[in-house]
Amino acid sequence: MLKQSFKQTGILVRFIVRQDRVRIPIWIISLLLITFSTAISFSGLYENQQERQAIAQTMLNPVMTAMVGPSEGLDNYTNGAMLAHQMLLFTAIAVAIMNILLVAKHTRMEEEDGQVELIQAFPVGRLSNLSATVLVVCGTNVLLAFIIGFGLAALRIESLGLEGSLLYGAALGITGIFFVGITAIFAQLSESSRGTIGFSFAVLILAYLIRAIGDIGNETLSWFSPLGIVLSAEVYVYNYWTPILLVGLLALLLLVIAFFLNSIRDLGAGFLSSKPGKIHASLFLQGPISLALRVQRTGLIAWAIGILVLGASYGSVLGDLESFFKDVDMMDALLTQVDGFSLIEQFIPMLMMVLAMFCTVPALLIVFKLKGEEKKGHTESLLTRAVSRTSVMGSYVIISIVTSVVMLLLAVVGLWSASVAVMDEAIPVRTLLEAALVYLPAMWTMIGVAVLLTGFLPQFTGVTWLYYVYSFIVVYLGALLQLPDWMGKLTPFGHIPQLPVEEMDFMTLSVIVIIAITLIILGFVTYNRRDILG
Amino acid sequence: MSIVQTHNLTKKFGKFTALDQVNLHVDEGEVYGFIGPNGSGKSTMIRLLLGMIKATKGEATIFGMDAWKDAVDIHKRIAYVPGDVNLWPNLTGGEVIDLFMKLRGAGNKNRREEMIEKFKLDPSKKCRNYSKGNRQKVALVAAFASDADLYILDEPTSGLDPLMERVFQECVLDAKKDGKSILLSSHILSEVEKLCDRVGIISEGKMIETGTLSELRHLTRTNLLVETKLKVIGLQELRGISSIKETGQVLSFQVDAEELDMVIKYVSQFGIVRLESAPPTLEDLFISHYEVKPNVKTVI
């Protein structure tokens, strides 16, 4: 019976590899590019140990600890220590996202769409699909770990030794495998692929937050987060392998549970079942706008809570930061140095930029939902009724713009309320609001790009994400990586006046707003002229 | 010999009973039609037989093996086509057919080409570009190109055009000629009438009627059309008569099978000029069962 359960896994493995022949290489190559190019750029950026040590000083604050992880290697900030400190956590998160998406696609998503049923009607074991998925995706992680490990060592950069490099790769790979386990379990528990992906992402976000809180104050807490455990490997500093082993064991346990759950359930069923819905459309659900809103209700609520928590978690750090700055007298490369402003105030623009970036994601997701609905043929059923294309697209754009404002306000509310609780001299809410709202034009420009692509080149809406990631890296890490100024000017976020440190610049903001409106109008015009996909 | 046999097969989803003590058997070389309204439990039945869901009570055997425990062995000799075929968007139809044939193990390259030709499928297209009907063709080609002993077909023609429907019917009859057994669940009653030796009607998870078409017909009304010399009077007072329509001297009505003899005797008094009788269509059968249902409920 047990052997029967895995029958024909081999063929399915090859089949999944065939399906993902493009997707998996793209993920691996992107992760390699990010890792190798950062490693190379770090080694060119700082001439000697003194320069690196100076940067290390700027990292010694709770905000950075919350963002990138503990600061064990800061005493001797070699190239390797710097790479592991600044890049390992973010890369590990990217790897986790890759694993969540890959596993969810081949398990619950294909089950939902009926492909698993087709396969299961052949002499194929009941657990074969799950085991083939796990094998392929874990294999991807192992491959990634080895290429990154040997690749980093092969760069021959001072202090990137072979052991450390292999550990760096292993830390990424094992994080990936852990999230294979998480996603595999939620694929059994949840009845939908949305649920599977949603719950898995929730675990990832929770892991990040627990680690952030743990790293600032309570180190034991970090051990409850897989990301925290992985970071305690202290790659390129002490090179501990035990944490990797520990996460590996946890992953194995998760996988065993997932296989067990799969073996005792019916195909198509989950353990968290869905509730019956309403029989009639509510008074609220009466037109394209409310339909668009209703369809995305759950996602938007989840984002709203997430953004509020994110704001609050940054806010709670401000207290630590305040006392920290009182003790240490130092300058920060990340900050624009202006007289007459407290260091805390100088931190605000960067915080706001990061929050605005996060708040842009749900706004963009709404615009992309329009294309998603179109591809599924849902838009067609609207357009064949007395609804114009302008009003369909308009509903999504309006919701997207309102979302950008609401999310940003929620972030400020979270930030402000937490900071009031922890700070001796609270920052006035007006200062925070101004510093945040000034980013709205930049967010609307991103929305504009998404709308234009939806209208003009619907196959390439994904380019918006590339532009988004570019903006994030350039503006967030620009100062750190010492990127040239013009690169920052290629994104709307790079033009926003940094309140309260800089002067308000209505001229620039108006220009950005006009650009955003132009992009959106062009999107409407092209959307009205093109064929509807289906 | 029974290829498929179920005994008091019951499936509950929580409190909801999807299938309630269903007994069914499909014999070797037989085409068994499985009909019932939406949500009556047809697909649940088929998924139980395929070992994808586990029965709450009762048992299902195929080729004498347990449908759940021996699923892998059973599936070596089964071909399945669902009504809603979703394929992998970035693979071609040809690739999917090959995968399906490889997964079953046995398969015939020539039959594959023959079936692709027959169903007029373009196997070089990516699945994302196929229409519903074409996706269904992919599954049908893979099924009929295989050398299965039992074909389980769950509304397999729901997306096909009438021409392709005919090709499908030929394939079923060919398979039957080769001694294969077929379990066909369908909504298209004319198709079931044309193809099936025996029929089972399921409603609300219960098998309410099963037998050959003529056996089932016996249970219901015959359509009669009578033209008489004299005007027929008093017909509505007779037992077992319904849906009387009168156009001049021509009367059409339905008669319960057991009252047929008495009705003919009565009508013949008026001098028959023309008499046409038609067997009830499956649709009549289906609807008569459907309409009876509320009464059954009150009795229980």
Total number of distinct structural domains of chain A: 2
Could you give the count of β-strands of chain B? 14
User: Unreliable stretches of chain A, pLDDT < 50, 5 or more residues?
Assistant: 330-334
Identify the biggest protein-protein contact and residues per side.
A-B, 27 and 34 residues
Mean pLDDT over the full residue set of chain A:
88
Q: Can you describe what's shown?
A:
The complex is a heterodimer of chains A (534) and B (300). Chain A is an all-alpha fold and 534 residues long. Chain A contains 23 helices and no strands. Chain A has helices at 2-5, 9-19, 23-45, 49-59, 62-68, 79-113, 115-120, 128-154, 162-189, 193-216, 219-222, 226-231, 242-264, 288-295, 297-327, 343-375, 378-383, 389-422, 429-437, 440-456, 463-481, 485-489, 506-529. In chain A, helix 9 packs parallel to helix 13 (242-264). With 300 residues, chain B is of the alpha/beta class. Chain B has 2 domains: 2-216, P-loop containing nucleotide triphosphate hydrolases (Rossmann fold, 3-Layer(aba) Sandwich), CATH 3.40.50; 221-279, ACT domain (Alpha-Beta Plaits, 2-Layer Sandwich). In chain B, 35% of the residues lie in helices and 31% in strands. Chain B is built from 10 helices and 14 strands. In chain B, strands 6-7-8-3-9-10 form a 6-stranded mixed sheet, with helices on both faces. In chain B, strands 2-1-4-5 form a 4-stranded antiparallel sheet. In chain B, strands 12-13-11-14 form a 4-stranded antiparallel sheet, covered by helices on one side. The radius of gyration of chain B is 23 Å and the shape is elongated. Mean pLDDT of chain B is 87; it is low at 293-300. The chains are: A mainly alpha (534), B alpha/beta (300). At the A-B interface, helix 2 and helix 7 of A face helix 2 and helix 3 of B.
